[in-house]
């Protein structure tokens, strides 16, 4: 812990990149184990969701259950520590691979939601956007047999509830054009919007280094920031309890829970 804190103290203006590990203490599970391997079935892809009605029914059936969990999730000590580090000027910005919105709920500013937000739903045809919370009442009124189904929370507003008879689920369409509604998140098989990626890269260019928290970096969308930091000769620090794809690129790594390391950094800054 002291080794990584020494590096973080050596300069200011760090850019933080967070993954699912930072939200695990808020009760939201991660996709992968400490070795970077899948802990559950791979989530639905963008292509499957768009092409297959039964796939959309399965997704929404699980999401109706999972939404009750994720909509009540609260920030944890790690989220608040990052907010405080921003307020002290040690962190200039934040890029998150998470879609839960907990960084903003904790009070962080200058946040790029790299993979979008699960609390928004977007029409794939006309682009109309609406709040996910408004859809919950629609789902429950038209699918009363799903309203009180139990399941175990899974990442990104999903739930492990494959016992549901999802083929009977009524799925909403866009009220404006009757197009397909999809959570405004980047599904597996899809790409991060170029405009969002450009903003994130510009943040890295103005930072003194990259601090990755709670991510295995197994997906290229996060790993690319480590490659860019290396190209720019900027130090990379990792806080993750398991292996990461960028272990060989890091100047230092703390294989530890996120919050204690961040709180130690805050304590050192306050001395």
Q: Could you list some keywords that capture this structure?
A:
271 residues, alpha/beta, Rossmann fold, six-stranded parallel sheet, three-stranded antiparallel sheet, 11 strands
How would you explain this protein's 3D organization?
This protein has 271 residues and is α/β, with parallel strands linked by helices. It has one domain (2-270): 3-Layer(aba) Sandwich (Rossmann fold). It has helices spanning 2-9, 46-51, 53-70, 77-87, 102-106, 132-142, 194-205, 220-231, 258-270, and strands at residues 14-18, 91-96, 111-113, 116-123, 129-131, 152-153, 159-160, 181-185, 209-213, 236-239, 252-254. It has a six-stranded parallel beta sheet with strand order 3-2-1-9-10-11, sandwiched between helices. Strands 5-4-8 form a three-stranded antiparallel beta sheet. Strand 2 (91-96), helix 5 and strand 3 form a beta-alpha-beta unit. The two termini are 17 Å apart. The model is unreliable at 150-160 (pLDDT under 50).
